[in-house]
Specification:
alpha/beta; binds magnesium ion; Enzyme I, Chain A, domain 2; binds phosphoenolpyruvate; about 45% helix; 21 helices; Glucose Oxidase, domain 1; TIM Barrel; five-stranded mixed beta sheet; single chain; about 575 residues
């Protein structure tokens, strides 16, 4: 495979990377096959039984939890999984196969399960076909225990490389070591998934929807990843390499040029002031905040504190993080969002029962209102930190007034406890409401008076308004913020926020897309909160606009009927601005 191959994917995070590939696989993928020495066979058998015990332990603790929460049906299913693990197929048959084949446990186990699956496939009875799913589920769990030691995490990678994966999870990306990972290339993924958000926060070029061939051969090929255009080039010719090295240099100079504006304020040519703040997922990003001229933190995604970890951070651990955050941010505000767990952000926690539609299930504020102890622990930590700087609290995924009032009431309870204990905190800490569910946008006249500020989460607002899964790349042709319904919802929120005299910010990914800057300003948004690497380009864009022109554009765009017409109008306005 020596000729140059160009694969067109979907761009997620801009930037150029040139390097060698590393194939990162999920535990159940790519199980290797190898022979085991006779004296190591007993070790392989023991390893298998240990993985079985661990899997059983997982299921039993999950089952206990389900029962505590009244999830009897789920507990029954887990009970049947525990029973399946006692089946002779799972015990005697696998042990015999390890002994007779003399191969590694993962491989033998997978092939025994393959035979079981084949038998199940031939059965037409729906009951037995369903049992196949149970076997697959258990098999995945056992394999992941077997491979725990063998599997490397993205944190452990020791040499510079471009990571190729079928798919990444938010915790994979959270752990990614940016000193050695030059880019990500995946087969599937979507623009506003949390994996993409994380890669952007870390500034790692990322291309998805690439059907890449086998790359990790004895002599892996050289690769170019162009995260801006979505192009992945395997075995580039000398000429292509030269072109991309020059392109990379040009891009770096452009960013350096843009950073010069960091000293100036984010206001339009005719003096309309905007607040340009940052979305922060990892502490490291805070260093860039000042360098890039961000005014505070518009969204601190607190749930990233425990992604990839096995336990929730204690009150003290959280307090230290939030305190450091507000102190580092200085005079500007830090908006700390309470845990937005659920959807694709569950990490290693099984707080809720397995759900058919996790994005429509017990997520974010819904989960926190159920898990009161966890919620109160976080609120205590935020409130304690508020004595050291400008902290605000933001509630995610509010869908109606009751949730907002209940969340605020929990804050009041925690305040009383702190007061009684003589612990200092800001008694008038602002409490904001995230508008990311259409129902919330439609009742902003009711929610705005009860909120200190509003923050529009367009990533979810688009998903819920258009009924398109934000993480499903096959549906991404429908997932667009330039749908007239989304723009009308944003307009509604801004108008009601303004009527109630409340600050309205946009913290979804469109805030970081310069194509939308003029429109959002024209719609009346006061603040844009963007990933730190996007701060310079958005500040420069704002500084090249007028509020008069922006309002005219917004007025015109609101008369258009399709995303295509709106995209064309935004592109034309952007080009006219000479950006
Ligand atoms: C959003 O939904 O727009 C948002 C900012 O929150 P998240 O992307 O973390 O769901
Ligand atoms: Mg959201």
């Amino acid at each position: 495979m020596n000729r140059e191959i160009r694969l067109q994917g979907y761009p997620i995070c801009p930037g150029i990377a040139i390097g060698r590939p590393f194939l990162f696989s999920a535990p159940e993928e790519d199980v290797p096959e190898f022979l085991v020495a006779d004296d190591k066979i007993q070790f392989e058998v023991d390893r298998y039984y240990q993985a079985l015990r661990r899997s059983r332990k997982d299921l039993m603790s999950l089952q206990r939890r389900m029962l505590q929460e009244g999830g009897e049906e789920a507990a029954d299913i887990l009970g049947s999984h525990i029973e399946i693990m006692r089946d002779p197929i799972m015990t005697v048959k696998v042990e015999q196969a390890i002994r007779s084949e003399g191969k590694n446990t993962e491989y033998v186990f997978k092939s025994v399960m393959g035979e079981v699956e084949e038998k199940f496939q031939r059965i037409t009875d729906i009951f037995f076909r369903e049992r196949l799913k149970d076997f697959q589920d258990i098999s995945r769990r056992i394999i992941s225990h077997l491979r725990q030691k063998e599997r490397c995490t993205l944190k452990q990678l020791a040499y510079r490389c471009i990571v190729f994966a079928h798919e990444l999870s938010p915790s994979d990306t959270a752990e990614a070591n940016t000193d050695v990972i030059d880019a990500f290339v995946t087969r599937s993924g979507a623009e506003t998934s949390h994996v993409a958000i994380m890669a952007r926060a870390k500034g790692i070029p990322f291309v998805t929807n690439v059907d890449f061939p086998v790359l990790c051969t004895a002599s892996p090929p050289q690769i170019i990843v162009d995260g801006g255009s979505g192009l992945v080039i395997i075995n580039p010719t000398g000429r292509t390499l030269q072109e991309y090295r020059e392109f990379e240099q040009k891009q770096r100079q452009e960013v350096e040029g843009l950073c010069k504006s960091s000293l100036f304020s984010a206001e339009t040519i005719d003096g309309y002031p905007l607040r340009l703040s940052a979305n922060i997922e990892m502490f490291k990003e805070l260093d860039m905040l000042h360098q890039y001229g961000g005014e505070g933190v518009g969204l601190f995604r607190s749930e990233y504190l425990f992604l990839g970890k096995d336990s929730f951070p204690s009150e003290e651990e959280q307090f230290l993080v939030y305190k450091q955050l507000v102190e580092k941010v200085g005079n500007h505000t830090s908006v700390i969002r309470t845990f937005d767990i659920g959807g694709d952000k569950l990490g290693n926690f099984h707080l809720s029962r397995q759900e058919q539609n996790p994005y429509l299930g017990c997520r974010a504020i819904r989960l926190m209102l159920k898990e009161r102890t966890l919620f109160k622990t976080q609120l205590r930590a935020i409130l304690r930190a508020s004595a050291f700087g400008e902290a605000s609290i933001l509630f995610p995924m509010i869908s109606g007034l009751n949730e907002l009032l209940e969340a605020k009431m929990v804050v009041e309870t925690v305040k009383e406890e702190l007061l009684a204990a003589g612990i200092p905190f800001n008694r008038t800490i602002p409490m904001g409401c995230m508008i990311e569910v259409p129902s919330a946008a439609l009742i902003c006249d009711i929610l705005a008076p009860e909120s200190s500020f509003l923050s529009i989460g367009t990533n979810d607002l688009v998903q819920y308004a258009l009924a398109v899964d934000r993480g499903n790349s096959a549906m991404s042709y429908l997932y667009t913020p330039s749908h007239p319904s989304v723009l009308r919802l944003i307009k509604m929120v801004v108008d009601e926020g303004n009527r109630a005299g409340k600050n309205v910010s946009v913290c979804g990914e469109i805030a970081a897309n310069p194509l939308y800057t003029e429109l959002l300003i024209g719609l009346g948004v006061h603040e844009l909160s963007v990933s730190t690497p996007a701060l310079p380009v958005i500040k420069n864009t704002i500084r090249g606009l007028t509020i008069v022109g922006a309002r005219e554009l917004a007025e015109h765009v609101l008369t258009l009927s399709t995303p295509q017409e709106i995209d064309a109008a935004l592109t034309a306005a952007f080009q006219k601005g000479g950006k």
